[in-house]
Write a structure and sequence with these properties.
Elements (H helix, E strand, L loop, with lengths): L7 H15 L13 H6 L6 H13 L5 H8 L3 H12 L2
Helix pairs in contact: 1-5
């Protein structure tokens, strides 16, 4: 299923909704400054970050190189939103 996102706000909502689903056990609010280290500290799986990027690739029909995924996984939610926005809206 491919999603059509046309602006930064839609991308932000998509990413936050996806994170809320994947990191359902994380009990703090997820905002643009939330890091993946923070998210992963609240769950018991090392595969969660990889799952996020696989879903994004499939649902948004964009390619995320392994080194880019590693960089994003070491960043915060804002970096993922900015990255997806740049890929979709260029």
């Amino acid at each position: 299923m491919s999603h059509r996102l046309s602006n930064c706000q839609e991308v932000e909502k998509y990413v936050k909704d996806k994170l809320h689903h994947i990191y359902a056990d994380y009990r703090q609010p997820i905002d643009l400054d939330t890091t993946f280290d923070q998210l992963e500290s609240g769950v018991d799986s090392d595969l969660v970050g990889a799952h996020l990027f696989i879903d994004i690739e499939a649902e948004l029909a964009i390619e995320i190189a392994e080194d880019e995924a590693e960089t994003l996984n070491a960043a915060d939610v804002r970096a993922v939103v900015d990255y997806i926005t740049s890929k979709l809206l260029r």
